[in-house]
Amino acid sequence: MWWQKYMAASLQDMPVQYPTPMCGLLIPFLLILIQVSSCTVTVTGYIGQDVTLPCSYDVQANGVLSFCWGHGQVPRSKCSNTILLSDNGNVTFRESPRYQLLSQVMQGDVSLTIVKAQKIDSGVYGCRVEIPGWFNDQKINVHLTMEEAPMEELDIQSSTDCDTVTVSKALLEAENIGRIAVIFFLTIILILILIIRRKVLMGRTTPQKLNTITAENIYETIPMTK
């Protein structure tokens, strides 16, 4: 057809344009701009304990912003499998009470704390902070690994308990020794009081006996006259 011949002739007459060096540098630069606010963090938690997934932004530069947490890597928009959503500092959605914001949210610390984390909580979590402008959203992917609590902590706890028992036992022994010492000293004082009292009583009775004996002797030495 005539229009196909016209298009073929036009394409043949059109000069071929190759990418310029500036265009080649611009494409990677745009990719860097898109990915500059994205990073990956690895966190290890212990089963049965609270674990915190870090995420923060600059409040002084942007003010209080909206953000979300999701289970899975941060997609191109919003969060995948959203588990927590906050609108300008106010939590509007929370999948479970186990997901808490225990940091200073109004200061830009939007770290997510999983209360009493379990093995099933392992995986990738995504935090997106909605910063105004094109491709400005901050994206943080956190890879969480859950492990059993190390035996060292259990040993330390056991030794702490033993130390506590030992200290308590030592205190009881010291208290008993103190009681025995008090009883011993009280007994000695009581004995001394009895001894002193006895000496005092003996001191009082001795002069009376001497006077009686002297009087008898004098009476015997006086000659009797007829």
Would you mind describing this structure in some detail?
- With 226 residues, the protein is α+β, with helices and mostly antiparallel strands.
- The chain folds into 2 domains: 37-149, Immunoglobulins (Immunoglobulin-like, Sandwich), CATH 2.60.40; 150-216.
- Helix content is 45%, strand content 22%.
- It is built from 4 helices and 9 strands; from the N terminus they run ααββαβββββββα.
- It has helices spanning 2-13, 21-35, 59-62, 151-221, and strands at residues 38-46, 51-53, 67-71, 82-87, 90-94, 99-100, 112-114, 123-129, 138-147.
- The strands form 2 sheets. It has a 6-stranded mixed sheet, with no helix packed on it. A 3-stranded antiparallel sheet has the order 2-7-6, with no helix packed on it.
- A hairpin with a 2-residue loop joins β4 and β5.
- The longest helix is centred in the last third of the chain and has 71 residues, at 151-221.
- The N and C termini lie far apart (197 Å).
Quick summary:
It contains four helices and nine strands, in the order ααββαβββββββα. It is an alpha+beta fold and 226 residues long.
